[in-house]
Automatic annotation (TrEMBL):
Every GH10 domain range: 1-345
InterPro entries registered for this protein in UniProt: GH, GH10, GH10_dom
The protein, known as: Beta-xylanase
SMART domains with a match to the protein in the record: Glyco_10
Length: 346
């Protein structure tokens, strides 16, 4: 059919992709054409993270982010900012003093406020939603022992949302995390959302990253998590979806990781997916999209973490140098058959 993902999901939810640097600079011409044609929302894969936006204190670098936002505006996209406060891809100066020691709570607050205010104000009214805090809660429901948590305690989260709200009162503000179907995480994230709301601090959505494999999570646990977050009166964003076709190394012992056998086991499909795996992978995408459609009243956006397989971070995570097939467009920028099947579901 002539339908695209963008046209098929038009009255349901935004359908988005992460953009890599070559895409933002429009040097990967063919995959940029895919983005323009197929997607209604974009997020930058890396260039809006703190280590890129403020590599040194007060030395902001906005060139790439400016290009990204301009691209989104030109193509009438729902532009997402990722991410303001995260323990990873965070420059060390952010939480240390000149001697390399942790700064005080007061100084860390000032630095958070300055970073958030500067970045959010720059794109006020243009970036429509921000991942304000990323990955702060562990699967067991405890808080991640990040520098933000160690220095400021749980309060760093409400503070970040407060600063973002002040800088752009109309932007949507989100909490974003991975493995968000674990019951401990569901409980603590829900509690955090309720706490923000009861204090009049804006939060519009919970982002479920959705870096998944063929087997985990079950659709049932994922569906329960959607319902649980929505029950707190926020939208659910599916923010970083891809389905890896490769075996997961979690739980395999580290001391075998450099053997030839281990490499072969972890990277079995260098010449393409066997038919049975391809079918399982397609069905898994279709199952997820059926679920998203069923809950379209709760879902604001579904974003894929990249456009083509060549670009995917999954080729290097959690094991380096693999050939994975997680996205909707292949290594030659061709549309996979699953795209038409997803469109047919609508
Ligand atoms: C990843 C990018 O895809 C990689 O290019 C980069 O090297 C590391 O970060 N959770 C997130 C994303 O919130 O920002 C991460 O993106 C993937 C996991």
């Amino acid at each position: 059919s002539d339908a695209t993902l963008k046209s098929a999901f038009k009255n349901k939810f935004y359908i988005g992709t992460a953009m890599s640097l070559p895409q933002i600079h429009e040097t990967e011409v063919r995959s940029v054409e895919i983005i323009k044609k197929q997607f209604s929302s974009i997020v930058a894969e890396n260039c809006m993270k703190s280590m890129f936006l403020q590599p040194q204190e007060e030395k902001f670098f906005f060139d790439d982010a400016d290009k990204f936002v301009a691209f989104g505006e030109k193509n009438k996209m729902f532009i997402i900012g990722h991410t303001l406060i995260w323990h990873s891809q965070l420059p060390k100066w952010f939480f240390t003093d000149k001697d390399g020691k942790d700064v005080s709570a007061e100084i860390l607050k000032q630095r958070m406020k300055n970073h958030i205010t500067t970045v959010v104000s720059r794109y006020k009214g243009r970036v429509k939603g921000w991942d304000v805090v990323n990955e702060a809660i562990m699967e067991d429901g405890s808080y991640r022992k990040s520098k933000f948590y160690e220095i400021l305690g749980e309060e760093f989260i409400p503070l970040a949302f407060q600063y973002a709200q002040e800088a752009d009162p109309n932007a949507e503000l989100y909490y974003n995390d991975y493995n968000e179907w674990y019951s401990g995480k569901v409980q603590t994230v829900s509690k955090m959302v309720q706490n923000l709301k009861s204090r009049g601090i804006r939060i519009d959505g919970v982002g479920m990253q959705t870096h998944v494999g063929l087997d985990t999570p079950t659709l049932d646990e994922y569906e329960k998590a959607i319902a649980a977050y929505a029950a707190n009166g926020v939208k659910v964003n599916v923010t970083e979806m891809e389905i890896s076709a490769l075996p997961s190394p979690w739980g395999t012992s580290a001391n075998v990781s450099d053997t030839v056998e281990y490499q072969a086991k972890m990277n079995p499909y260098t010449k393409g997916l066997p038919e049975n795996v391809k079918t399982a992978w397609e069905n898994r995408y279709l199952d997820f999209f059926r679920l998203f459609l069923k809950h379209q009243d709760k879902i604001r956006r579904v974003t894929l973490w990249g456009t083509t397989d060549a670009q995917s971070w999954k080729n290097d995570f959690p094991v380096k140098g693999r050939t994975d097939y997680p996205l909707l467009f292949d290594r030659n920028d061709q549309t996979k058959p699953v795209v038409e099947k997803i469109i047919q579901l609508t």
